[in-house]
Design goal:
The protein is α+β, with helices and mostly antiparallel strands and 151 residues long. It is built from four helices and six strands. It has one domain. Keywords: Signal. This is Lipoprotein.
Length: 151
């Protein structure tokens, strides 16, 4: 079993904090929690309880339609981690994320796609970030989604 596949069981936020390929402070921001954050459990889309995005979260960074936001965590320096679940299979979720974060004023960089997970950095609109998606083995046809956004 691949180590990356095992990370899904730990949870979306923990998995994102261990991503490789992003060797700058954006990755470090994923490991910090600031008071007032809501944690996100790994859940299937049918069982997800949506939470609101923080006030002022840029519309250009909104997740693709149909994804359920399950957690929002504040990080240092005004950064935010949003966790969600997509009711779509990995391949469709990947296509949706690639489209969303290569349009709306974003430029993608430093990404990779594997069989059951993918990630990419992006920047634009005066911001930069990183998204990561993982197939959820216990939720057939669902995909976990995490997005870090900051300056």
């Amino acid at each position: 079993m691949r180590v990356r596949g095992a990370l899904v069981a730990v949870g979306a936020v923990a998995a994102v904090s261990l991503l490789t390929g992003c060797a700058d402070e954006m990755e470090g921001a994923m490991a910090e929690t600031v008071s007032g954050s809501t944690s996100a459990a790994l859940v299937c889309a049918a069982d997800a309880k949506p939470v609101d995005l923080p006030e002022g979260f840029p519309a250009q960074a909104a997740l693709p339609d149909g994804m359920v936001v399950t957690g929002v965590q504040a990080r240092t320096q005004g950064r935010t981690v949003v966790t969600a679940v997509s009711p779509k299979p990995f391949a469709q979720t990947l296509e949706d994320m690639q489209h969303a974060y290569t349009t709306r004023g974003w430029t993608a960089s430093e990404g990779e796609v594997e069989d059951r997970d993918a990630e990419s950095n992006f920047d634009g609109n005066g911001l930069r970030g990183r998204w990561a998606i993982r197939e959820i083995p216990d939720c057939t046809g669902n995909t976990s989604v995490s997005v870090l956004l900051g300056k």
